[in-house]
Every structure is written in structure tokens, then in C-alpha cells.
Amino acid sequence: QVQLAESGGGLVQSGESLRLSCEASGDIYNIPAMGWYRRAPGKQRELVAAMADDGTTNYADSMKGRFTVSRDNAKNSVYLQMNDLKEEDTAVYYCNAFIRTRGYGTNDYWGRGTQVTVSS
């Protein structure tokens, strides 16, 4: 059984920063990719940023320059540093990981989500 545990969401004012964390636990062999998606009210879920285990990153265009994704492979963790937050960044942020487990192949896993609210 694999679980993703997110933390770090909250209420901030426009222009402030937040750092999200996500740790994967369970019978993990390796994690080829980890990242973050978000779903804003009334919108579809969208990619925020992701990082492969070789350090390759992929960002949504609107997040480039303000958000930074990073990983600690030894801790099976991924982080999202969000700077200069705007009201339109208000959303539920979900951790996502493509995980290879011991004996069970590779699957896509999701966290429960953490709320980020940005006020003016």
C-alpha cells in the first residue's frame, strides 16, 4: 500500500509565499516522477509542476518563475515553493507520484489535496 501525505497549505495574502510538502510511504522501489496538480473552483485539474528522478522538471507556463518544484529522493518527497502568490492561485493542490513498488509494478498515486487560499 502506498500513501501520499501532503502538508503546507493555508491562507495567505497576495504576494506572500507558501511551501507545500508531500511524502510518499509504503513498499516503494523507486519514484520515476513526482509533482503537483491543482484544481481551482469551477475549473479542471491542471498540472502545476513535476520533477523526474533525474531532476528534469516540467512546469505549467503560468507557474514558471514563481513556483519551484524540488525533490528529496532519499525521503521520497516532493516540495513546491510558491512565491508571489496571487488570488488566482487559490485551489486545492494535489500531490501526484508515479511509483514503482516492489512486486506490484508501476502506478499513479494521488494525495488527498491541501487547500491554498490567497486573499487580496
Task: List the keywords.
seven-stranded mixed β-sheet; four-stranded antiparallel β-sheet; 0% helix; 120 residues; mainly beta; single chain; 62% strand
Largest sheet, described in full?
7 strands, mixed
How many β strands by DSSP? 11
Shape: elongated
Low-confidence stretches: none
Q: Average pLDDT value?
A: 96
What fraction, in percent, of the residue positions are helical?
Answer: under 10%
Which structural category do the helix and sheet elements fall into?
mainly beta
How far apart, in Å, are the first and last alpha carbons?
A: 41 Å
**What does the radius of gyration come to?**
14 Å
Q: How many distinct helices?
A: 0
